[in-house]
Amino acid sequence: MDHEAEYTDEFVSFLELIWGEGYLSPGGPDEVGRILDGLDLTGLHVLDIGCGTGGIALSLAADYGAAKVIGVDVEDPVLATANRRAAAKGLADRVEFVKVTAGPLPFGDGEFDLVFSKDSMIHIPDKETLFADVFRLLKPGGWFAASDWLSSHDGEPTPVMKRYMEAEGLSFGLGSPERYREALAAAGFAEIGVVNRNEWYCTVAARELADMEGPLYEKGVAAAGKEEADRNIETWRAMVPALEIGELCPHHLRGAKPG
Question: What are the structural domains, with CATH classification, of the chain?
Fold first, then answer.
């Protein structure tokens, strides 16, 4: 059965207005740089899990020197956009976009030097199986570098968090920092890093909301329609309080496969 697209054209248009072309999560290229800090991608074979419209995968090749990047996603519309952008930028020979379904990824053991993901693993509830598969895909000495949306705990969400999740309307499989760390360790990763980015995004999200309600509002309506612009403003109005109480807490994640 095909995955029902959650990232509609209107939703994508609005997110790219806020975060930049090809970026469907906060921070744009600067945040990608922080996730990859200290890692040299020159000549590497890279997998981008949850590639969306392809901005990051294309940057990994063009700006970071990766020899080959494969981006995977479950939704046809974003992959079609990603493929168009790869062709337009002359990178189709180095960046490939592949549709996948839930479950183990269709690649061989030890096929990648680096597995990257930005804010997409929230849609995969089984973190333990996910990280075991990522570990399998990496060559000995390879790295996993990512960010994701986490919850500060694994219990019942507070009313503030529930309000945000209902406003977002996406399939969320939230986990705590402790669960992520334990799942990475159980998979076999070493040099594990789990770094809270809540303070950073709490400030940024408040500024984004002010822009959406003010100077960017008409651009949002033009890009995505009034209904979508208003829906996203309500989502941000619900998200900011969840960030302010620390329950919604984006994190950077890292782990090495022992050589």
Answer: 9-155+168-196+250-256 (3.40.50.150)
